[in-house]
Amino acid sequence: MTFAAPSLSPEHRHSQRCRLRLTWSPKYGPLLPVLGLQDKYDVFISYRQRGNRGLVMTLHPKLERHGLVTFVDTNNLETGVNFKRACMTALQNSTVTCPVVSVGAIHKMRSLDHLDTCDNVLLEWMAMLELQQLAHEHPDKVHLHRIIPLFLGSGWHDSNSHSLSVASASEYDSFDRMKRLAMTLPDVVNRKIIAALDQYFARVLHLPPPQQHKTVREVVLSLFDMDGITSFQYEVDRAMDASRIAERQQQQQQQQQQQQQQQQQQQQQHHSNHNSNSNSSNSSNSNHNSSSNHHSNHNSNSNGNHGSQRRQPQTAPPMSSSSPSVLPSSTSTTTTVSSFEPKLQAWLDHHSLLPQVAPALAEHDIDTLDDLVELVVGEMLTVQVLTDAGVTMGKANKLIRLAKQHHQEQQHSTGSSSSA
């Protein structure tokens, strides 16, 4: 077995993409890991090795097959490098970061206090939250634009490398249960994590450190407020689920690239309009000066008789009616909503959910409020089902929560009527 010289894959845009190549690399190239730190990444995966290594080792090659250059510490960090600084540098140079939020990741954080050791996973999560805030102000230094949390259940829990059993981990197999676990984390600021973060800002980014630092609990709960990807099954086909996650990651990456391109086009258009306005202003000033000179010469030639000459009033050119404004069409949403019962429409509209969840409900033939509540209470309609149908995680969680509240209110009302 021999090794070929590192070569750049033509389908990737990064300038220093170094692959380990075997003599049969055309066949096995996509399966080989990217070694060493790169100058840029599409995705950064932040995870706890004791608990979620199985997911990362399954997901990483699938992301690479989708053309996403992905940072994973076991592949990209070589022996002898400063682990904390190297990870935060990779974060800084990644477009999207994916924190793996699981019982295995959170469980260890329950014992953290302000004097405890530096938890590297929590350091990465805190760093990505701060770096995302700086991306717009310092685009030359920070490339991180999006955080997409990956919420995992016991189906991905590696019990052989973690003190928590799969049965214990399964107690948190829902978005709400895991969030309740996060709410029990210490509400303290870990000094060693803060010191490492501030040092990176000062020595590497050459920027002032954050003025106010988040507590352990605040950092983790911040991730629950973001649109992410969920996988809470107790039993899961890991290969198929990893493929699903990789496809969602690719879609999110493409959306981020489109947003960046639109922003660049808007900036270019703004710059072009600014230059055009500047040129127009200069031309107007030139015409004004020319008109002033002409007016001065005319007054000089009129021998003081300008009082008998009156300027004719100018009439504005007629407005064109050939291009009337066009309102955005809502035909598809209207068609979907028209199949709902009025009670369901009114309930969704009252809670500001109608346009966001209507297509997903129609896809599953849910057209009455009673059906919606029954499916939610029976845990057949879940946050994951809704997010897979295209609903953002925030709206999906809101719909599930409100449907459960509606069910409880109905039960309370029924109980009160029976007592009466």
UniProtKB/TrEMBL annotation:
<dbReference type="GO" id="GO:0007165">
    <property type="term" value="P:signal transduction"/>
</dbReference>
<feature type="compositionally biased region" description="Low complexity">
    <location>
        <begin position="249"/>
        <end position="307"/>
    </location>
</feature>
<feature type="domain" description="TIR">
    <location>
        <begin position="39"/>
        <end position="189"/>
    </location>
</feature>
<feature type="compositionally biased region" description="Low complexity">
    <location>
        <begin position="320"/>
        <end position="337"/>
    </location>
</feature>
<feature type="region of interest" description="Disordered">
    <location>
        <begin position="244"/>
        <end position="337"/>
    </location>
</feature>
<feature type="compositionally biased region" description="Polar residues">
    <location>
        <begin position="310"/>
        <end position="319"/>
    </location>
</feature>
<dbReference type="Pfam" id="PF13676">
    <property type="entry name" value="TIR_2"/>
</dbReference>
<dbReference type="InterPro" id="IPR000157">
    <property type="entry name" value="TIR_dom"/>
</dbReference>
<dbReference type="InterPro" id="IPR035897">
    <property type="entry name" value="Toll_tir_struct_dom_sf"/>
</dbReference>
<dbReference type="GO" id="GO:0045944">
    <property type="term" value="P:positive regulation of transcription by RNA polymerase II"/>
</dbReference>
<protein>
    <recommendedName>
        <fullName>TIR domain-containing protein</fullName>
    </recommendedName>
</protein>
<dbReference type="InterPro" id="IPR051647">
    <property type="entry name" value="Mediator_comp_sub12"/>
</dbReference>
<dbReference type="GO" id="GO:0016592">
    <property type="term" value="C:mediator complex"/>
</dbReference>
<dbReference type="GO" id="GO:0003713">
    <property type="term" value="F:transcription coactivator activity"/>
</dbReference>
